[in-house]
Design brief:
Layout: H1 2-18, H2 26-39, H3 46-79
Helix pairs in contact: 1-3
């Protein structure tokens, strides 16, 4: 069980870190993140916790893709001629 707790804490900290650049603002992301974790605070089944951690990992990958795409679009806009 302590390993699961460590995984959940790491997931929360990673999502909190990634939320700093969220398009709707860090405060909005932090509020939604906290409510999502508090909604599942009473889950004790290790298999269910693993599924929730896996979903959190998926969200991390989606956020990273969102940020990468945003940076790519900014660079494309900056360096390529929009008339072509």
């Amino acid at each position: 069980m302590p390993a699961l707790k460590a995984q959940v804490m790491k997931l929360y900290k990673t999502l909190l870190y990634l939320g700093r650049e969220y398009p709707q603002g860090a405060a909005y992301f932090k509020e939604r993140l906290k409510s999502a974790f508090m909604k599942n605070k009473d889950v004790t089944d290790p298999e269910k916790i693993q599924k929730l951690v896996a979903r959190g990992d998926f969200v991390i990958k989606e956020l990273e893709a969102l940020y990468f795409l945003r940076k790519y679009r900014a660079m494309k806009k900056r360096y390529y001629d929009p008339e072509k």
